[in-house]
Write a structure and sequence with these properties.
This protein is mostly helical. It is built from 10 helices and 2 strands, in the order αααααααββααα. The chain has one domain. Helix 4 packs across helix 9.
C-alpha cells in the first residue's frame, strides 16, 4: 500500500505542479475542469447513486455547469464574486453540520440534497482556481496555497502520530486528533511567514496591513482545509464507504486527494478578492 501511495504521488505531484506553472489560463481551466468532472463522478456515489449511468450523467451535468459558469464569468466579473461567496457560505454551513453529526443528517441525507451540495462544493473550487490563475504571478500564489494545504496535512499527520490522543471529531473522523490539528496550524503558520519573506525578497515590501492579511489568509485557509477533509469523511461515513473511488492506487479517489482543496481554494480566492491582495 505504501509503495502504491508513493508511486501515485510521484505521478500526481509533477502533473499538478506542471499544470500550475506551464499551462496558460484556458488550458489550466480545462485541466482543473477535468479533475472536477472526475470528482463529480465520485460525488454522485457519495450522494447515493451507485449505478454507473447515473454517476456519468451527474458528471456530465457538472461539466455543463462548469462551461456555463465559465461563460458567465467571461460576461460579468460579478459571477466570480457571487460564486466565491456561495462557496464560503456553504463551508460556514458545513462547519455546523460537522459539529452536529450525526444529529443533523435529516437536513442533508436525501440523495437529491447531497447531489445539489456537490455543485456548491466543486464549482467554487474550479472558479477559485481559475480566479487565482488570472492574478499577477499566479504560479507563486497557487503554489503557496498548495503548500498551505499540503503543510496542514503533513503537520497534522506527524503531530497526530506523535501526540494524538484527544480526538478532534470522533463521530466524523476518529483518526483525527487535536494534536494533529495544532501541528498542521503550526506548520502552515511557518509556511506563511516564509512565503511573506519570499514576497518581500522577490516581489515587493509588505506593509503591516498586508502582513496581517497574509497571516489571516494563511490561517483561515488552514482551518477550512481541515473542514473540507472532515466534510468528505462525514459524507463517506453516512454513505458507508471508505474511499470515494479507487481511481488513484493507494490514495482512494480524486475527492480523497482534493477534499481540502475544495474548501481551501474558494476561501483563499475570496480573501484575495476581498483584500485586493496581490504580488
Amino acid at each position: 500500500m505504501l509503495k502504491q501511495r508513493i508511486l501515485t504521488a510521484l505521478v500526481l505531484a509533477p502533473l499538478m505542479i506542471g499544470g500550475i506553472f506551464f499551462l496558460p489560463l484556458q488550458y489550466f481551466s480545462y485541466f482543473i475542469g477535468a479533475i472536477v468532472t472526475l470528482a463529480a463522478w465520485e460525488w454522485a456515489n457519495l450522494s447515493g447513486f451507485s449505478c454507473q449511468y447515473r454517476r456519468v450523467a451527474y458528471a456530465a451535468v457538472m461539466a455543463a455547469a462548469l462551461f456555463t459558469t465559465g461563460s458567465l464569468m467571461a460576461q460579468s466579473p460579478e459571477a466570480v464574486k457571487y460564486t466565491l461567496v456561495a462557496g464560503v457560505a456553504w463551508w460556514a454551513i458545513a462547519f455546523l453540520l460537522v459539529l452536529k453529526y450525526p444529529n443533523a443528517t435529516g437536513l442533508w441525507g436525501a440523495k437529491i440534497t447531497r447531489a445539489l451540495i456537490g455543485f456548491v462544493v466543486l464549482i467554487p473550487m474550479w472558479v477559485g482556481f481559475v480566479t487565482l490563475k488570472e492574478q499577477a504571478n499566479s504560479s507563486a500564489l497557487i503554489l503557496f496555497l498548495m503548500f498551505i494545504i499540503w503543510g496542514a496535512d503533513t503537520g497534522a499527520y506527524f503531530a497526530g502520530k506523535t501526540w494524538g490522543k484527544s480526538k478532534l471529531a470522533p463521530n466524523v473522523s476518529p483518526g483525527k486528533s487535536w494534536a494533529g490539528f495544532w501541528g498542521g496550524v503550526a506548520t502552515t503558520f511557518a509556511i506563511t511567514l516564509i512565503f511573506g519573506y519570499i514576497v518581500e525578497q522577490n516581489f515587493h515590501s509588505l506593509s503591516q496591513t498586508e502582513w496581517i492579511q497574509l497571516i489571516v489568509m494563511g490561517m483561515v485557509t488552514t482551518l477550512v482545509s481541515v473542514l473540507g477533509d472532515l466534510v468528505e469523511s462525514m459524507f463517506k461515513r453516512y454513505r458507508g464507504i471508505k474511499d470515494s473511488s479507487q481511481l488513484l492506487p493507494g490514495h482512494g479517489g480524486i475527492l480523497d486527494r482534493t477534499d481540502s482543496m475544495a474548501s481551501a481554494v474558494p476561501v483563499f480566492a475570496f480573501f484575495i478578492w476581498w483584500f485586493g491582495w496581490s504580488l
